[in-house]
Design a protein that fits this description.
Layout (H helix, E strand, L loop, with lengths): L3 H9 L2 H10 L4 E2 H5 L8 H13 L3 E3 L7 E4 L1 H42 L5
Antiparallel strand pairs: 1-3, 2-3
Helix pairs in contact: 1-4
Length: 121
């Protein structure tokens, strides 16, 4: 069984699913609206499979209103991903800050050495 974060990243790995999520970031849409941009390249059953992957990863919720199947983003799932990524963002920011501090010491030492070797005519 996969953990939730693995399911989420697997769902986000596909460009079609990311495009569907981008569309849903503008607001709720039904399945046929989400399918329109992709119908020239894939079948409706393939689109439905993409939506099921997004739903299983809890990135979207799909409801039923008469004959419509409105979908919308689930912000909680994105928060989990953002929290996970944020841990690594902090690590890399601290690493870059240390590198920046080190480079400043190296460049200031080189500037001091360069001034010592300047000859006057």
């Amino acid at each position: 069984m996969q953990d939730h974060l693995s399911q989420t990243f697997a769902a986000l790995a596909d460009p079609t699913r990311r495009a569907m999520l981008a569309r849903l970031s503008q607001g709720e849409a039904n399945v046929s609206d989400l399918a329109k941009p992709f119908l020239t390249d894939m079948s409706l059953p393939a689109i439905t499979k993409h939506l099921k992957v997004l739903e299983k990863a809890k990135l979207i919720t799909k409801t039923r209103e008469a004959q419509w199947r409105p979908c919308k983003l689930n912000g909680d799932a994105f928060k989990d991903v953002a929290d996970w990524v944020d841990e690594y963002r902090i690590f890399w920011e601290q690493s870059f800050d240390r590198l920046d501090a080190y480079l400043k010491t190296v460049t200031s030492k080189e500037k001091k050495k360069g001034k010592k070797h300047v000859r006057k005519k």
